[in-house]
From TrEMBL, chains A, B:
UniProt protein name: Bifunctional oligoribonuclease and PAP phosphatase NrnA
Domain called DHHA1: residue spans: 221-311
InterPro entries the record matches: DDH_dom (IPR001667), DHH_sf (IPR038763), DHHA1_dom (IPR003156), Oligoribo/pAp-PDE_c-di-AMP_PDE (IPR051319)
Top EC group: hydrolase
Length: 314, 314
């Protein structure tokens, strides 16, 4: 484990830096990568970003301040990636074993990098990037502020999740002072829904089932729903938080059918239930409030196993 | 207009203080009143709160730190009240002309009090109360922190509205440090939906129709839906904003069937469309973003007339 100082020190000495995002990229991995990339470029270094998955258009603005540069990387940095598995192909095969520095906030971080700068107390990897950029004496300009604000607001559900700390608010204050347009970003991230998203919400709400005195709610996301609504990954993101939002529900389970025949489970829990503990029983992980795991079975079988495990915790 | 310092000075010299909230009380007026009341009681003063309307149970926790005291008031303070009209009866008649101090953040404040401490830059009246309590050297304890945090988060839509400033985040940081349970409060205020609400959302989303190149979306709320889900007025509140949240939609129309055979229309518009102008054609009104009108016809006939009027504006 390295400190923020050591991470900054490594970056200060590095050049031709490739920054990797995790698959199914979210606001935090993309905000971290774009803020860091622009910051390094401002220091006169060459830097670029790679992600194994396509990036949905709503995140386009993050790349506004990033210069497109092509080079053979001499240093590889992973941001917001807990495990090399999450790099996704082709980048996992290409770079998975060569990560020089990982900057992350997942408590489940596997320590796969040569240097791991991991702080589970940070609500978002963007909080750590904010510190590292300051240590590198990079001026936080409006573009960087927008990127970092995006990661913080998306990973905290607009300052709503349990991971928010006084520091989260103080960094947000600094970023807004540096020009981050929090209002526009939050509207874009949280208030605008595509037609496909509306269709998915409607279909998903039809599948809600309650268990254990209504303390557990389960939803299903099938391939057919995704096909018939034309939903993209961006449209599916966040559906998993629907069941936990229901009054009295302590554990929300989202089951998602995958094209390869597996079933991906996203768990959302309220204290005192720990979602990560439950998913750990199936080789998964995450945070206390949100965690995930994968089953090589049908959705119905995955649901049965999850419910049995949840029963022990509730 | 008096400064925060002068407001604190007045309160320091006062005793037997009655604090008034506005009618239809929200998190800011109640959070301001309860934080101020507890703060004054901690200084050894007698203080009590009055509101013309009943307070819904979800705000009960705000009163946990307030001692019930009865006395004939010698000083009257209004919090978050822009106009004496908004005090509501009976308190408006009893106290409307005797307000010694008003602490508020509405730009429209009418200056009805003997001393008006109004700061339209504050996102919530609770921001001003935070400063006044600090000036009075009241220690912000966990209960006061919860009250002030509640007003700030409810008046900013959980840090989402345009009124949020760096100072808003910094005060939130301080309050969380003093023990405010932001996560629980935000979940309670924003994230918790009743099963009836979930049922209504699902049913309403099934009714969405798009018109005029998907720039207009219409939803319907029928008596049957309300009956079959068991929805209360609280569960129906806010459904009207669903259609406008859809990507590309400029005008969202919500048609609601009423027991007396009329049809209530709620319109939500994005610039440059003015919802109030459209509703004015049918004797209704409101703001540019949100307006309403009523039809003495079936929902289908109301929809037809609305669409014809909207066509002229789009
Ligand atoms: Mn993250
Ligand atoms: Mn207010």
């Amino acid at each position: 484990m390295v400190s923020r100082n050591e991470a900054a020190e490594f970056l200060r000495g590095a050049d031709d830096i490739l920054i990797l995002c995790h698959q199914y990229p979210d606001g935090d991995t993309l905000g971290s990568a774009t803020a860091l990339c622009r910051g390094l470029q401002k220091l006169g270094k060459r830097a670029m970003i790679k992600c194994s998955d396509p990036i949905v258009p709503k995140y386009d603005y993050l790349f506004g301040g990033v210069e497109k540069q092509e080079f053979t990387p001499k240093a590889i940095v992973a941001v917001d990636i807990a495990d090399t598995q999450l790099i996704g192909e082709p980048n996992q095969s290409l770079y998975g074993e060569k990560i020089d520095l990982c900057i992350d906030h997942h408590p489940s971080n596997m320590g796969y990098a040569k240097r791991s700068c991991v702080d589970p107390k940070a609500a978002a990897t963007c909080e750590i990037i904010f510190d590292v950029l300051n240590l590198l004496n990079v001026e936080i300009d409006r573009q960087i502020a927008d990127c970092l604000y995006t990661g913080i607001t998306t990973d905290t559900g607009c300052f709503k999740y349990i991971n928010v700390t006084p520091r989260t608010y103080r960094i947000a204050a600094d970023l807004v002072e540096k020009g981050a347009d929090g209002n526009r970003i939050n509207r874009e991230m949280f208030d605008t829904k595509s037609r496909a998203r509306i269709g998915m919400e409607r279909r998903v709400m039809e599948t809600i089932r309650y268990y254990y005195d209504n303390r557990v709610a389960v939803i299903k996301i099938t391939l057919e729903m995704i096909r018939s609504t034309g939903a993209t990954e961006g449209d599916i993101e966040g559906l998993a938080s629907i069941p936990r939002a229901i009054e009295g529900v302590l554990v929300g389970v989202s089951l998602r059918e995958k094209p390869d025949g597996t079933c991906k489970v996203s768990l959302r829990a309220r204290p005192p239930i720990n979602a990560s503990d439950i998913c750990a029983a199936f080789g998964g992980g995450g945070h206390a409030g949100a965690a995930g795991c994968t089953f090589d079975t049908t959705m119905d079988q995955a649901e049965k196993q999850m419910l049995e495990e949840i029963r022990k915790h509730i």
